[in-house]
Design brief:
The complex is a heterotrimer of chains A (643), B (201) and C (82). Chain A is 59% helix and 8% strand. In chain B, 33% of the residues lie in helices and 25% in strands. In chain B, strand 8 and strand 9 form a beta hairpin. Chain B folds into two domains: 91 residues, Ribosomal Protein S8, Chain: A, domain 1; 93 residues, 2-Layer Sandwich (GMP Synthetase, Chain A, domain 3), CATH 3.30.300. Chain B is globular and about 45 Å long. Chain B is built from six helices and ten strands; from the N terminus they run ββββαββαβααββαβα. With 82 residues, chain C is an alpha+beta fold. In chain C, 16% of the residues lie in helices and 41% in strands. Chain C has two helices and six strands; from the N terminus they run E-E-H-E-E-E-H-E. The chains are: A alpha/beta (643), B alpha+beta (201), C alpha+beta (82). Strand 10 of chain A pairs antiparallel with strand 5 of chain C, so a sheet runs across the interface.
């Protein structure tokens, strides 16, 4: 029986006159906690990490008469008794054991009216903390609609704290919560807490349910109907793949025109600089460094926003947990779980939202393993590189019936990425990221029409981060790489064309020097210094590889060529052999399957793992894989061709 | 492995809490005052009664109503009382306390006195009026009139308050029923009909 | 009273009552009980995932899926056979 009252630690450590009241928002996943949080704090939430761990921390400010209170949206949890190190974070925070973070002054427990039976357990645990507390019951409209009932006043008598009923999606009752926020220190602390021994707990819940005239909601007919189809062994899997296909279609058909538009905008800005800025180096820095570099990343914004919208919509409507259920067994083979699949799948479009969507994975080990392999999923930034090289160097001939060589190679590259991701995940999960004892459980929430506001808020939050945080890092990296490519400034011989002058400058720049210096490293892969320079340039974003190669190729080729592809084909080594023999092309393609050439991804990894070690590890292992893969590809193709 | 379903509730009177116990293991009516003991109660409860930490325990069917002295805090004692009660009942003990019941006439007079006296101002403060309808077999029926319009919870709150007061003084009252007066049907009380019914089961 | 079996063995569509949650790790047992898997709780086996695992259970007003590893720690008696 648990009846202790940690009264001492509930006291705020500073005077409230001098500092803001801090309120913790506690609730199980799907209880509507985040909707309430957004309603209370608007868009003024800051997300980050708790010190030293991979647990996302969201803090927002709510306006109350005479000031603001700080509300902390704790990670969704069914229980305050920690099983994993992540959950330890939450319980440490609430008990004031976290270094550098003061315990909250008060708590709001959010529970879903339709699952009040289960929610009572968490309510009991929160009451046990001895903090001033209120209970918010969400989705009361759905409860009433499904014929359920809860006697709120009786519940207040039993719990000994105020109970507020709200409908988060419509905002009903939110003002009542706001009214209470005025003076959180005046919220009552419970005088007696529910039992914690399982049998007594079950008995307590039964007794309370009877007292509050609990009338459980009827089964969710819509949910039962949809689940019969969506989780049917055959139809469910078919539907699942249909969702995947539509998902890709949306991303590519809607995002591509926008993407072209944005990159056009940045190109135009670059051109304007080139034409109107008299100082050559500054014009080049702005055009080739800032606008080109940042532009190549920002052009992914439409795609990322769309991805976030689709993922958030599927998540809030309740489909993601079904998709995770369908894939769980398959993911279990490599030691991950169904929810990891959802993130890896998003990474097919772009690793940035993929990595950010790992927040729904409860175990931080699974989460880190997923983050570590997400960049191996073939993202859309690799496509320009793949298509250029495949279209240029792979003959479009039929291999077997309708299967053509080009298509097969492209499929092979996607497949290689996915398989490697699974293998690396399996290795990580068997070594440094062995599963902790956190059991697997996943709620199947009823299918609900998500509040548009919530979907957009979540999307905005994530995109904002991408724009601001990744934007600054990418800007810095772009400038740094521009400097590498343009310093020291050399005077090209006078007989060169403009293009050749650019190439001459590249060759003699720091990057060119590095490209030459590392030639021995990449020689086994068949890369020359030009490719090395392009690789260095592609560290900001993969698709700049194409641009740099194009620049060098068009500078060096004597003839007029209409496309980058033709320019590459025409290029020769000093000894007259082609610069891009099949073995080298193969090595480049395989290298791109593995290498982590994306500053945005590194930046997001840094933030989501809350460490420098993990992104450094990812970069290193992917580079090693890329090199080995490229070497193997080069060796095999050379052997086959006998050259 | 299963335990006796029970829970604690606060009442309108801060000095009084009640423990609701299901499954016919608590029966009354009975009153045990400070300084007394009853073998049926958990030993910890008896020590608390002896020590004056509890002023009074009123036992009715399925319910234990505990009053503590005003200078004491529930926070200091409620957990212990709940723990020992749960242990006592889950060990298989039954709490059966019987003191002599008063006749319906005696109860009617007492209820009327309460309604006219201590309760009158309380009821008035909630914007309503209550009259006694009948007392039959220790079941009290009252008539609720004119609770504040538009306040859906007023009816339930008012009824709860009265019931707490009546049962505290007269544990032998088995049930308090309410009839909504014709006037009050338009005042929102009717909607609370379902809430009013199962007060004591 | 019917025999005590693990939740894993209960057929789809059947209803069982939890007798006890018993696993090698106390914190895992506690977590399952906090999810609502408490003694005396009625639980319905709703469906199995297309690949056979995990299984979706309905209890205490919501649906929760568990893998076999977790459901095998929950001892139940079958009340209604599908």
């Amino acid at each position: 029986m648990s009846c202790h009252e940690p009264a001492g630690q509930a006291e705020p450590s500073g005077s409230l006159a001098t500092r803001q009241a801090r309120i913790a928002l506690i609730g199980s996943p799907n209880a509507g906690k985040t909707t309430l949080f957004n309603r209370l704090t608007g868009l003024r939430a800051k997300t980050g990490n708790y010190p030293g761990v991979t647990v996302t921390r969201s803090v927002g400010q709510a306006s109350v008469p005479g000031g603001t209170v700080s509300i902390e949206d704790l990670p969704g949890t069914y229980s305050l008794t920690p099983v994993s190190p992540d959950e330890q974070v939450v319980s440490d925070l609430l008990e004031g054991k976290m270094d550098g973070v003061e315990p909250p002054d008060a708590a709001i427990v959010v529970c879903d009216a339709t699952t009040i039976e289960r929610s009572l357990i968490l309510v009991g645990q929160v009451l046990d903390l001895g903090l001033p507390t209120i209970v918010v019951i969400t989705m009361v409209d759905e409860l009433a609609h499904r014929g359920g009932f809860i006697d709120k006043e009786k519940m207040e008598n039993i719990l000994g704290v105020p109970v507020v009923e709200i409908v988060g999606t419509k905002g009903t009752g939110v003002d009542d919560v706001k009214g209470l926020l005025r003076d959180p220190m005046a919220w009552p602390k419970p005088v007696v807490t529910p039992p914690s021994e399982p049998a007594e707990q079950a008995a307590w819940i039964d007794s309370v349910l009877e007292a509050i005239s609990h009338n459980p909601p009827a089964g969710h007919k819509r949910t039962a109907w949809f689940d019969r189809i969506l989780l049917n062994p055959i139809l469910g899997v078919l539907f699942f793949f249909l969702v995947l296909i539509i998902f890709f279609q949306i991303i590519f058909t809607l995002a591509t025109p926008l993407q072209d538009y944005i990159s056009g905008l940045f190109d135009a800005a670059g051109d304007w600089c080139t034409e109107n800025i008299q100082i050559d180096w500054l014009a080049s820095l702005l055009a080739d460094g800032v606008f080109a570099g940042v532009g190549t990343v920002i052009q992914f914004l439409p795609q990322i926003i769309l991805l976030f919208l689709v993922v958030s919509f599927l998540e809030n409507i309740g489909y993601m947990s079904r998709a995770a259920l369908v894939m769980d067994r398959a993911m279990g083979v490599v030691g991950l779980e169904g929810r990891c699949f959802v993130s890896l799948f998003s990474s097919y479009a772009c690793a940035v939202p993929g990595i950010m969507s790992t927040r729904t994975i409860p175990s931080s080990r699974d989460r880190i393993a997923t983050i570590m392999v997400a960049p191996l999923m073939t993202c859309s930034a690799r496509l320009p590189v793949y298509t250029l090289f495949i279209a240029t160097f792979i003959p479009n001939e039929s291999v077997w019936g309708p299967l053509r060589a080009q298509g097969l190679v492209l499929f092979g590259l996607y497949f290689l990425g996915a398989v490697s991701a699974m293998i690396v995940a399996a290795i990580l999960k068997r070594t440094s990221l062995k599963s902790d004892k956190l059991p697997f459980y996943m709620e199947m929430p009823p299918y609900r029409i998500p509040g548009i506001r919530l979907v957009f808020t979540q999307c905005w939050d994530s995109s904002k981060y991408f724009l601001r945080k990744a934007g600054t890092i990418i800007l810095g990296a772009s400038i740094a790489i521009w400097i590498l490519l343009h310093v020291p400034v050399v005077t090209p011989p006078e007989n060169l064309t403009d293009q050749q002058a650019v190439s001459y400058q590249l060759e003699h720049s720091v990057a060119g020097t590095i490209g030459r210096t590392v030639e021995p490293v990449f020689e086994p892969l068949g890369f020359n210094w030009e490719i090395n320079v392009a690789l260095i340039g592609s560290l900001t974003a993969r698709e700049t590889f194409v641009a740099t190669l194009g620049q060098i190729a068009s500078a060096e080729s004597d003839d007029d060529v209409s496309s980058v592809g033709e320019a590459l084909q025409a290029q020769t080594n000093p000894d007259g052999s082609p610069m891009y023999p099949p073995a080298t092309v193969g090595a480049i393609l395989v290298f791109f399957v593995f290498a982590l050439q994306c500053m945005s991804t590194v930046a997001v990894m840094r933030r989501e793992t809350n460490s420098r070690r993990w992104p450094a590890f990812a970069f290193t292992y992917m580079f090693v894989l890329a090199w080995i893969g490229g070497f193997i590809a080069h060796t095999i193709i050379t052997a086959i061709n006998g050259s | 492995m299963t335990a006796i379903p029970m829970h604690a509730e606060q009442t309108a009177d801060p000095a009084v809490m009640r423990w609701v116990v299901r499954g016919d293991v608590v029966t009354g009516p009975g009153v045990i005052n400070s300084g007394q003991e009853d073998a049926a109660l958990p030993p910890e409860w008896n020590s608390a009664l002896t020590a004056g930490e509890i002023e009074q325990v009123i036992v009715t069917d399925g319910e234990l109503r505990v009053r503590i002295p005003e200078q004491r805090q529930w926070r200091d004692i409620a957990g212990n009382l709940q723990g020992s009660l749960s242990k006592h009942l889950n060990e298989g003990h039954v709490i059966a306390v019987k003191t002599d019941a008063r006749s319906d006439e005696e109860l009617a007079t007492a209820v009327q006195n309460l309604l006219d006296g201590p309760l009158a101002s309380y009821v008035a403060s909630h914007g309503g009026k209550i009259t006694l309808d009948s007392v039959v077999d220790s079941v009290v029926t009252v008539r609720l009139i004119g609770a504040c319009k538009g306040c859906a919870s007023a009816g339930a709150t008012l009824k709860q308050g009265i019931e707490d007061q009546l049962r505290e003084n007269y544990p032998e009252i088995k049930q308090v029923r309410s009839i909504d007066d014709k006037d009050s049907k338009t005042s929102g009380l009717a909607e609370n009909g379902r809430k009013l019914l199962p007060f004591i089961s | 009273m019917s025999d005590i079996v693990t939740l894993t063995e209960v057929e789809k569509g059947s209803v069982a009552v939890i007798v006890q949650v018993d696993g090698p790790d106390d914190s895992v047992v506690a977590r399952l009980s906090h999810l609502g898997f408490l003694p005396g709780t009625r639980i319905k086996v709703v469906r199995r995932a297309p690949l056979g695992d995990p299984t979706v259970f309905e209890l205490r007003g919501n649906q929760m899926s568990l893998r076999k590893r977790e459901s095998s720690t929950i001892k139940v008696t079958v009340e209604e056979v599908a």
